[in-house]
Amino acid sequence: MAKGIEIRNAHFPGRAPIDAYGNGGFRFADMSHRGSLLCLPSGIYGWDMTLEDALTPAHFQKVLDEAAGIEVLLVGTGMELRPLPSELRAALRAKQISSDSMNTGAAVRTFNIMLAESRAVAAALIAV
């Protein structure tokens, strides 16, 4: 019996620099992804986050769950800088993760540099 197309959660099992961003998505590792991304030590994941969503600890649970491998979290907040709410900063600090919010383009560039330096960096990138 033939199965139809299987839709799976977006996940790239490795670390890779972001080659391009814009038009609502990203390109990395010879692939493209429409929507936002979490770039974590365990891989790159599709992230159900939009420009309109609040930056809450619940949206960053996957980051908090992988805290052991993360020293710095870069948060790309879209075209404009959005400060991280104190509740989110406190949740990250409790897991000993330093956080920095910036526009998505700056976050992509900074992530790529830190990744090339083999730093314990993660990125939460809202698509623009």
UniProtKB/TrEMBL annotation:
It comes from the Bacteria. PANTHER family: NADH DEHYDROGENASE [UBIQUINONE] 1 ALPHA SUBCOMPLEX ASSEMBLY FACTOR 3, NUCLEAR PROTEIN E3-3. Pfam families: DUF498 (PF04430). Transmembrane segments: none annotated. SUPFAM superfamilies: MTH938-like. Signal peptide: none annotated. It comes from Rhizobium leucaenae. This is NADH dehydrogenase domain-containing protein. InterPro entries: MTH938-like_sf (IPR036748), NDUFAF3/AAMDC (IPR007523). The lineage of its organism: Bacteria, Pseudomonadati, Pseudomonadota, Alphaproteobacteria, Hyphomicrobiales.
